[in-house]
Amino acid sequence: MPYNIEPIPPADEINGSTALPLTRVKRIIKLDEEIGTCSSSAAFLVTVAAEMFIQYLANQGYKGAQKDRRKNLQYKDLANAVAALDTLEFLSDTIPRTVPYKKIATERTKKTSGELGAGQMTLNGGRGQNGYGNINGKRKLSEEEEDEDMSGRRRGIPGSRGERS
User: Fold this and answer.
1) What local confidence, expressed as pLDDT, does residue 104 receive?
2) Which of 77, 82, 75, 50 is nearest to 61 (CA)?
3) Contact, 44 vs 22, CB < 8 A?
4) pLDDT tens-digit profile of 93-149?
């Protein structure tokens, strides 16, 4: 499938036509409840401003692609531009840097195995650094502990639900 790799040349001066469809921009503006009506000239200015912003973002990303000796713009180029420039910081939630899954998985295992205090448990039943523990943080319960765990109370201790007198 052939791709259109010819860049759209930037307009030297504003001549009344835009690359973005003006009717769609008007429709997007109308979606805002705070704006009742929008004149054609205001919608045109918003469209031109959006085009200029897209061009700026693409140029900043393209600089990153050129550093990697590529001609094609990739997501990582835009994400790096957003992370590097203070003027694009507001896009950091929209265009975040990608992180490999392997790195996230190793950080997650380090976090769950090392941050639990004595007596704390994870949601999957793993215990913290209190002397028990294998890779999963679980240990084999004794028969007495299994009975306590199954019944939800200790037997023979005054003040508990299974109190004997």
Assistant:
1) 86
2) 77
3) yes
4) 999 988 888 888 888 887 766 555 666 666 666 555 444 444 444 555 666 666 665
In eight-state DSSP terms, residue 54 is H
pTM value > 0.85: no
Nearest to 87 by CA among 62, 60, 126: 60
Helices (H), the chain: 22-30, 40-67, 75-84, 101-114, 143-151
Q: Which structure tokens are listed for 147?
A: 């009975």
Average pLDDT, the chain: 77
Cβ distance 149 to 160 under 8 Å? Answer: no
Element (H, E) at 53: helix 40-67
Measure the CA–CA gap between 123 and 139, rounded to whole angstroms. Answer: 15
Quote the tokens at residue 52.
């200029």
Structure tokens at 144: 């007495």
The Cβ of residue 80 has, within 10 Å, a number of other Cβ atoms equal to 20
Beta bridge partners of 127: 121
Structure-token pair, residue 146: 């299994």
Helix axes 22-30, 40-67, angle to 10 degrees: 110
Map tokens 């957003």 to a residue.
Answer: 82
